[in-house]
Amino acid sequence: MKKRVLAIGLDGFEISVALKMIDDGKLPYLAKMISNSAFFKLDHGDARSTGLAWEHFSTGQDPDSYKKWSAIDFNPDTYSVEQSSTRSRSFTVGLPVKMVTFDVPYLSLDGSDVLGMSNWGAHDPGVKRSANPPELLDEINTRFGAYPATKFIYGFVWPSIKKTKQMANDLVEAAKKRSEIIEWLFADRYPDWEIAIAVTSEHHSGIEALWYGMDENHPLHHVPSANAARKGLEDLYVETDKMLASLAKKFPDVTMLTFSMHGMGANDADVASMILLPEFLHQRSFGTPFLHPRKEWILSNGRRMNPNMDWTQAILPRMGRRSPDSFMGIIDRLRQKLGLVEKASPFGAPVRFDAKQSLSWMPLIHYQLFWPEMEAFAMPAYYEGQIRVNLKGREAQGIVALEDYNKVLEKLERDLAGLTDFETGRPVVSRFERPVKNDPMAANSTQCDLRIVWKNHSVGFKHSETGAIGPVPHRRPGGHTGEFGYATLENTDLKNGDYGTRSSFDVVPTILDLYGLNIGDNSISGRSLLND
């Protein structure tokens, strides 16, 4: 008889934090689990920069296999952008196995034989909320209620002690509720499964917002809310420890796989990629600023801002051709408040959030009007900086001839290499990558021409030609910068111990292999962890 497989994905779980807490005696079950399992570090490789780890899991494919290198689609005909949903089928389709899943990001259950629910409280769910059977949605809501931490899935709290404590409390409550649902779903509602998969999201949300409390080297580590942030993250890890212990006790006969697709750490990209890079390219093209930092941002190097505002609310009103502090800027704002203009012009101030545009919250989007006039512009990005060349024959209003493509990129790299951190004076660029250098005309809607890997978490730049860019307040203190994810395998033929580093793409083949399923004809990336 085949042994059942229980896979628990811990989205955003940074293993180094767990190991330190284990050393401090705070995570008794995780200490036991790691000692009594085959332990692997997981390397997501360059695919980590796509931010699509769970789409890679749900499809079982790497970016090269299904031709998607970013969560953002760019239309070269209209210069418009949108955040795309998953466009490849799940690895679960057609498997001859009874499977139950809960809250696996990017896993669509529509028309599927898989039982369970998607998008209960996932961080970047990638699919609409659905269940199979459909009535399971109401059943879960009636029994357990809605997700307790919805407003903090993408929380921004560091300027406020009160909000930091509330986010921490709500995420812990969400983790407890998630644990209850998983046990009920797998033990009571659908107990005859052969493979069961559940994913937690609270570490992802928690580390992105609260990392500064844990990281002694983070620029925000000494702000007033840091202690509450640290306690909140530790409480989340303790709750995860309890959940895993409870599941192991409830299902003692199964092969248990726990995993995190990638590590987490300090965020080095949000501010640099979402506002500083597009502002630098704007000034480089037009010689005038579009961003007008507040004095308190400059004096504190982004460590102070109004605790009653979120990041977007703080940044957007400081963008426009005219400074909001200038006489005409004040007139613009007054006219807006009086309803004399429907919307602020991009040639005035301030820029405004547009709820109809899904990416309007990101400051970079408000440079979009200028893209057709620029030889190169910053693309929306959640991680590394991304630049698209306005290439003739590819972009509708292309400026750069193909024979000048490399020359333009070389000049861009020289200029960007001259950027230094506003506070330390150190270079901010770690390296450049040219993803489509072999055939730029064939770049698809998710590809850029130049990728910038940042060196540190700068919130302000300086350059010999433009002067200061920013600074602006920090956004997410945490990001996808941890070195490794991890996986543990319990109750298999593998001996306990450390098995070194493997690919994050090996998780899906392992789940299939553990139950003796055929991995297929190269439709699944990676190889089973059971294989040397």
Could you explain the architecture of this structure?
The protein is α/β, with parallel strands linked by helices. It folds into 2 domains: 5-267 and 479-514, Alkaline Phosphatase, subunit A (3-Layer(aba) Sandwich); 270-475, no CATH class. It contains 14 helices and 20 strands. It has helices at 15-23, 28-35, 53-59, 63-66, 136-144, 161-189, 202-210, 226-250, 270-286, 295-300, 311-315, 327-337, 405-417, 507-514; strands at residues 5-10, 38-43, 72-75, 80-83, 99-102, 115-118, 130-132, 195-200, 255-260, 265-266, 376-379, 385-389, 420-421, 429-433, 450-454, 461-463, 467-469, 478-479, 485-490, 497-503. The chain has a 9-stranded mixed beta sheet, sandwiched between helices. A 4-stranded antiparallel beta sheet has the order 11-12-15-14, covered by helices on one side. The chain is globular.
